Amino acid sequence: MTDQRTTVLGYPRIGSDRELKKAVEAYWAGRLDAAGLERAGRELRERTWSELRDAGLSDIPSNTFSFYDQMLDTSVMVGAVPARFAGLDGLDRYFAMARGARGIAPLEMTKWFDTNYHYLVPEVGPQTRFRLTWDKPLTEYGQARELGIETRPVLIGPLTYLLLAKSADPAFAPLRLLDDLLDVYAELLERLATAGVVEVQLDEPALAADRSAEELRALARAYEHLGGLSHRPRLMVATYFGEIGAALPVLAATRVEAVGLDFVAGPGNLAAVASTPGMAAKSVVAGVVNGRNVWRTELPAALSTCAALLGLAGEVVISTSCSLMHVPLDAERETAVPEGLAFARQKVAEVVAIGRAMREGPGAAVPAVPVRAPVDGRMRARLEALGEGTARAAHAERAVIQRASLGLPPLPTTTIGSFPQTDAVRRARADLREGRIDRAGYEAAMRAEIDSVIALQEDIGLDVLVHGEPERNDMVQYFAEQLDGYAATEHGWVQSYGTRCVRPPILFGDVARPEPMTVGWAVYAQSRTGRPVKGMLTGPVTMLAWSFVREDQPLSETARQVALALRDEIRDLEAAGIRIIQVDEPALRELLPLRVAGHAAYLAWAVAAFRLATSGVSDSTQIHTHMCYSEFGEIIGAIGDLDADVTSVEAARSGMELLEDLRAAGYTRGIGPGVYDIHSPRVPEADEIERALRLAVRAVEPERLWVNPDCGLKTRGYAETEASLRNMVAAARKVRAL
Fold this sequence. Notes:
Layout: H1 19-28, H2 34-55, E1 60-62, H3 70-77, H4 90-99, E2 109-111, E3 118-120, H5 136-146, E4 151-156, H6 158-164, H7 178-194, E5 199-203, H8 213-227, E6 234-238, H9 247-252, E7 258-262, H10 269-275, E8 283-289, H11 299-310, E9 315-320, H12 344-360, H13 377-386, H14 395-406, H15 423-434, H16 439-460, H17 477-480, E10 484-487, E11 494-497, E12 500-502, E13 506-512, H18 519-527, E14 534-538, H19 540-545, E15 548-549, H20 555-575, E16 580-584, H21 599-614, E17 622-627, H22 636-641, E18 646-649, H23 657-664, E19 670-673, H24 686-699, H25 718-736
Helix pairs in contact: 1-2, 7-8, 11-12, 15-16, 20-21, 24-25
């Protein structure tokens, strides 16, 4: 029997102890020079290649590493660098595109399909002239070869790159640049072939979404062109996050040698292969190990899929469903988590085990450990009795009551929730965890930080205050650690964007709230000021999206369980005198199915869960929500259906474009468009914020308009935070006076 090929589509790049984060942030702080940063990156890459080789994979990917983001890398590689960065070069230009620089705005950032990973949106237009300006794929291939490891370079596919790009001119479609971009890809492929590369992976996840006839024609043109090159490596086009649909016959008709398909998120891909002429001559890279969740693979089912493919494809290569960058590195490091988990290292072992079973028979595979989810019968009975919750008065009626109760000025100023997490705050949390201080000492430290944050906000002149969330390690993890049915990891870090890493909790059983989670902190903060303080919670959809969730029941049912726990918390906050409560749902757009056919059902249960959580309060209590870094135009109707009194949204990097969508949709509730970008360290000038507010006032009546940053301030420093907020308040007062 021939050898069975095995691979993964990508691998975590941050290191086992977040070495990438530490190196990049040391470079930003001036503690590490460029040579030191490059050395740290090379060490991480070499460690990954060696680990995958030693694990027994036959095919190892390269060029999956990035100091910030692979879409950003691609923009730099093909010369798609906006003119405002022309005065910079090297790493200074690279990181300015990601984070901005003095007087220079960064690229827009948004979610990578339906994941919690953020990518930098390419900016292109009629003036864009692509050219190959960075040989990163060649360099990394050469580095691996020095170790004696042959790799498969991974590139963002040209179609996906252009479909995710934006132009400042709304009349210009980036796809018009396809032929020019293909010339650059052709040059790169020829250079890779000359260097000895046997196969290249071109990632086209955009094919898992609905594609127009024009876009499918562009797909055909792209791969007919690249497949027709006389001197090139083998081409493997990989799609993931769903079913490939009408794109499969298009690819099958080209000269690409292999197609990567996700059989976890796209079970219909098996029937698609069976019904597509030409697939018998292709290799199918079978994504049967889930690259996005942490439960062990049901190996008999995965083997069954692979066996079915044997008669349909020319070759079957065992793989993960997508890159493993979406899961933590190693479950073996964890001590307080449920059985049956597989992180990246364990998933590589599963891929290898399936490959061995394909060679030697099913007996070579180890069965998955079943997970027995804890069941809370009382919670389930409460949900059944409650139904969809209770209705509040119409928003227009509530708005009148709330204006009289709160007494806020037009264009009230506030923040999204978190304030900078200082070294002292993090140290206090670590000291409590390690037993160096007791609970009383920790709470005293947190109260002192809240005192400082409240005093600062009063001095700046904000109208609605927050307590700053010093006690919270993460907006999801904090709640998960206090809810039944969740487990937290110690080392389960996953990259969210750049150097921002999170530890998604594991939702494995029925969710219930044993006791209040935020009430004490909110009440203490409110006692320190006469201005309203917002209670701050994370919404049910985001609690699911940013966790690794159980797979033994529908997401809609799990969302209702989380919503019930939040409902109890909201009612307790109201009873304690908190008059404004913010329930953040930044992931509402993120979980939207990639294909339109699934939108209505998803939005129905997502909206119902939010309303279940928030509908148990009086009409005088003002409910806020917050959303960020996603394209929200597709869910404008659902944003209104949430029935929140005020919605704050990311808007600075996208030039307030969402406001026009809201106006066109007839949105009549309060809106707080982010007036400056918190993911950049630059301090916006007051006149810059004033211009943004003037744009906002054109689309929204002043009595409905709130003024706030794009997102929470946790990752920023106090100096830039204070300066930015003072400028924001000054701009709001100036526009308010007009």
